[in-house]
Amino acid sequence: MHEIILCKLGEVVLKGQNRHSFEDKLVTNVRRRLKGCGSFQVYIRQSTIYVEPQTDTCDMEGAYKAARQIFGVVTVARAV
Question: Rounded distance, CA 76 to CA 79, Å?
């Protein structure tokens, strides 16, 4: 078992045909914000961004705090 971070998207889910470009930009912003917290795999599925640590040395508390400050993310949850 390992801990992950789930980020729910805000109004991006209401976008039309260009929704994927907004989602891609948001994933890029998440990766950039979490770079100082360790190595994470970041991907999006069904309007949720999944942030999975790649090593045991990742700062999950720091990543959680950083994810809560990303524009476009309305809810952040830690899950196991």
Answer: 10
pLDDT at 8 over 80: yes
Q: 37, 63 in Cβ contact below 8 A?
A: yes
Q: Is the pLDDT of residue 1 over 70?
A: no
CA distance 77 to 5: 6
> Which residues neighbour 41 within 8 Å (Cβ) at sequence distance 6 or greater?
50, 51, 52, 54
pTM of the predicted model as reported, rounded to 2 decimal places: 0.88
Tokens at 49, concatenated:
């961004």
Which residue has 């109004």 as its token pair? 11
Angle at 71 between CA 68 and CA 77, to 5 degrees: 30
Angstrom distance (rounded) from CA 5 to CA 64 = 7
